[in-house]
Design goal:
α1 runs parallel beside α3, α5 packs parallel to α7 and α6 packs antiparallel against α7. The protein is mainly alpha-helical and 149 residues long. The protein is built from seven helices and three strands; from the N terminus they run βαββαααααα.
Length: 149
């Protein structure tokens, strides 16, 4: 069991990266959060990502997901509604922009509108915007420029 106290997150995420790299699913990556009162809660990686509120954990988890060779798009879309923190949602949307299939484009538009409506004074919707830009470049590359002779 990997225990993630705030000061140990790099080690925990490196181990999570190992588990994902050998083909483990989100549900089988053993993690735990240690609260300020030293209470340890066991979590799977998807539960961890849905509950974590430390920016450092979120950013490191996103790095792990980005570097993972495992196709995590389906898992991330599945756990997205359970994520409590809009910053985590925005960051996951960025990762999904690089990994999700074209059929999910309408879902990204919905997430953009939802985050824009829920957090009008914040930039959380930019994660969905960036994802859509990334998907546009992946699925609709600009046509080669033709030269007039």
């Amino acid at each position: 069991m990997l225990i993630a106290g705030r000061e140990r997150y790099e080690h925990v995420m490196a181990n999570a990266n190992y588990y994902l790299s050998i083909g483990s699913s989100f549900e089988t990556v053993p993690l735990a959060l240690e609260s300020a009162d030293s209470k340890v809660t066991e979590l799977s990686f998807d539960e961890f990502l849905a509950l974590v509120s430390y920016d450092e954990f979120i950013e490191t988890a996103i790095r792990v997901l980005t570097k993972s060779n495992k196709d995590t798009a389906g898992d991330l879309i599945r756990i997205f509604p359970d994520m409590r923190y809009p910053y985590a949602q925005a960051m996951v949307l960025v990762v999904l922009g690089c990994k999700a299939d074209q059929v999910h484009i309408p879902w990204f538009f919905d997430q953009y509108k939802k985050l824009k409506r829920l957090y009008p004074d914040e930039s959380h919707c930019e994660g969905a915007y960036y994802a859509l830009c990334e998907m546009e470049s992946r699925f609709y590359p600009p046509a080669a420029k033709t030269r007039k002779k």
